[in-house]
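Hi U.,

Before I forget, here's the chain from the pilot set. I'm dumping it here mostly so it's searchable later in email.
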Amino acid sequence: MNSRSASALGEPLKRRPEQELPAPALAAAGRRLEGKVAIVTGASRGIGRAVAERLVEEGANVVITGRTEDALVEAVAQMPDGRAVAVAGRSQDPEHRATAVATAVERFGAVDVLVANAGINPVYGPLVDLDLQAASKVHDVNVLATLGWVQEAWRAGLGDRPGANVLVMSSVTGSVPSPGIGWYGVTKAAVAHLAVTLAAELGPRVRVNALAPAVITTRFAKALYEGREEEVAAAYPMGRLGRPEDVGAAAAYLCSDDAAWVSGQVLGIDGGLLAAGGTA
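Structure:
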């Protein structure tokens, strides 16, 4: 009996030795966002920074935001001169959002793309023990601030130029129970539904989609894999955890005109985790 028929009968399919390969290099960036202006929130490091760097590689000018000015300045210094501007502040602060959007318009002339990536998760444990004040803060940053960014960009003319779109950051935790980070998952489920609802409301002028990553090797997610990365990665059919660049590449596609007829979608970036019945 060959390995494929064994799998069909429910026996585990053994990976051949030659399949134990390193992660392939991502495709080189094109110029799909030439002339576009993007705002990427939560972009001082990790996923947000990888998204911003990829959008710049694809031709966009970007405004990046985050709480730590020094980290933002360092991120801008790694991008081509004049193509990125940093605005430090807290995502849940309406004045910060207004300043960042105004900076995009004043510096680069418009807002074409909004990537609402900023999020927090300072609470762990079962929902029945959850501190409601802390839960409210997570909701404010992950959900209400995401909507606030869309509102601010819309008021500044998002959708006035062709190809406008919004990308929000959900998570696989919004689709399946996630022990210890259940409230984070609840907020990310709300973000996914926010994307679908906004897509229905803002089309055809603005496309809206969401990305739903699984565990990505960032400082933000370190508690989920630190010291046991191989063990955690074993649950993923692709045999590894995600990298920030994986999310950046998917974001570049959804933000470009290659996805011109894609709206209201939640794209999983999870290495096959959910397809294999895994949990976040």
